[in-house]
Amino acid sequence: MRSAFALLSLAFAAVSFAAPATNTGSGTGALFQRCNRPGVFALTFDDGPNENSYGLAKYLHSENITATFFTNSRNFFSSPFDTTTTETEDGTKTYQEVLQYYDQLGHEVASHTFSHAVLTSLNADQVAEELNLQSDTIFRAIGKRPAFMRPPEGATNEAVNQVISSLGYSNINWDVDTKDYEHLGLATEEERVRAIVDLDVPGVTLGHIALQHDVHADSVNILTPWLVQYLRSKNYTFVTVSDCIGLPAYQ
Ligand SMILES: *[C@@H]1O[C@H](CO)[C@@H](O)[C@H](O)[C@H]1NC(C)=O
Ligand SMILES: *[C@@H]1O[C@H](CO)[C@@H](O)[C@H](O)[C@H]1NC(C)=O
Question: Which cofactor is essential here (predicted)?
Fold first, then answer.
């Protein structure tokens, strides 16, 4: 599972480096990897919520930053999502309350499917179920249904794209892959980010969408604060995905 993820991500990165990432297509199969204008940067976090997530949302808020969380219901825990709790500096919270907290702070709640299933291995009904169940979880928490999804491992094909589109979702990928799941340390992650962002021409290069995972404590506690100060030194404004691409976050 983990090595398949790494291989797919490598394949994806190779494509990204071969040509500058762009937003491709419209309607079915449209794929967003960049913002629609220069000067803005979207931090995105996949695979949560887990025990790191509430504190991350709070830290970003203390920095006046809004971000986008691509959430699962059954990924790092198998117990019922709505009643499973996590300890936070504001007391014990259910994961439903963590999603509510994101929304209260202006972060966006997006779908990374219900169980982090690789959608290309499912039939159309199963893909729809993965999306609908996660939409239900998010709706129970915040009373809104997500319009953004990110396929686990970035894996899609024509049949999956048909379902994503027919259920009203935009497919949100990234152009800056920190590969935080490799845990190679800040210096390596910093190089990966700089290899892309240091080449930007201010006022010209379209803004970026970065990929991180809030389930990894080092990504939350070490990489994120570095990104915040580095991107501020580049005069980037942090935006949610909806602001980045100019589409509503909810259906
Ligand atoms: C966040 O915004 C508030 C209100 O504008 C301001 O007082 C505060 O200094 C800002 N904090 C940071 C870390 O930029
Ligand atoms: C950021 O903005 C400041 C103030 O306008 C400017 O002096 C600096 O050159 C800018 N930095 C970059 C990397 O554009």
Answer: Co(2+)
Question: Is beta strand 40-46 parallel, antiparallel or unpaired with respect to 208-213?
Answer: parallel
pLDDT at 1: 38
Q: For residue 178, which of 44, 73, 4, 40 has the smallest C-alpha distance? A: 44
Q: How confident is the model at residue 23 (pLDDT cuts 50, 70, 90)?
A: confident
Whether the CB-CB separation of 139 and 101 falls below 8 Å is answered with no
Q: Is the pLDDT of residue 4 over 50?
A: no
* CB of 78 shorter than 6 A to ligand 1: no
- Report the nearest-CA residue for atom 12 of ligand 1: 63
**What mean pLDDT is predicted for residues 163-183?**
96
pTM across the whole model: 0.90
Determine the average pLDDT of the residues in 8-31. Answer: 55
Minimum CA distance residue for ligand 2 atom 11? 234
- Residue 234, token pair as written in the block: 């580049």
Q: Which fold has domain 30-245?
A: TIM Barrel (3.20.20)
The residue extents of the domains of the chain are: 30-245
User: Which residue out of 60, 64, 231, 233 has the highest number of ligand 1 atoms within 8 Å of its CB and is therefore the one to mutate?
Assistant: 64
